[in-house]
Amino acid sequence: MRMVKQALNFTIVCLAIGFLIDCQIAVAEPISSDKANQIGIVLMHGKGGTTKRIDDLSDGLKGLGALVETPLMPWSEDRIYDKGYEESMAEIDTYVSKLKADGAKRTFVARHSIGANAALGYGARRGGLSGVILLAYGHVPGVRGFARKLEDSTDKAQAMINAGKGEEKAEFDDVGGKNDTARATANDLFSWFDPDGSATMAANAPKVKPNTPVLCVDGSNDDWQRCDTIMRQLPEHSKNSSVFVDANHLQTPSKSLEQIEK
Q1: How far apart are CA 150 and CA 196, in angstroms?
Q2: pTM
Q3: Which of 14, 69, 99, 226 could bond 40 through an S-S bridge, CB–CB 3.0 to 4.6 Å?
Q4: Which domains, from first to last, does the chain contain?
């Protein structure tokens, strides 16, 4: 299995790279051979999904000796927006804590699509991470075209909140993933959809903690390539990296593993 040497030296597991990043490719060895540097990764799925599209990547990382958590998150098919954005950050805390309790000395958050959005948000809110890895970044409420698609639902949620009904559930239209609609409280839904809110790139990318490097991976056939925009907004870090894999949006996690294994 193939890895990037510089990333290993910084203990970033390059989940999605078959490229060189200012270094030579090294023959990989088990990443947990040194228990003092045991790596733990919270690896999360995209919107309306399950762990299916990240299972191959998870298995490959476990095969290298990493500790990996692949929970079903508040944006999964059966939980869609059952927690607000900030509450989702608190849920991620529990998985990071579990990895540490299991022996992880270096912890990473890595996610696909809307999960990458949450990973960026987590990196902006929590220190002590060894890295944030974004796979096919999705869910961009602060981007005009995307915000327009969500506008009716956002307006409906805002009206409910203004009427004192923020904790009431309603049916909202959604885009992307398996879910065309979402039944959620107005407060929870609005926290994900607000074009000026906490789930936007503009709110999170500039606030990533200064000592936290970010690896961003786009699929070359993905219609929604966001890494360039994210990289421009991040705090400077010598190991921030943006790369492509030969994949569309949904294929990016599994294609990333293929690149690593070559």
Answers
A1: 13
A2: 0.84
A3: 99
A4: 2-137+212-261 (3.40.50.1820)
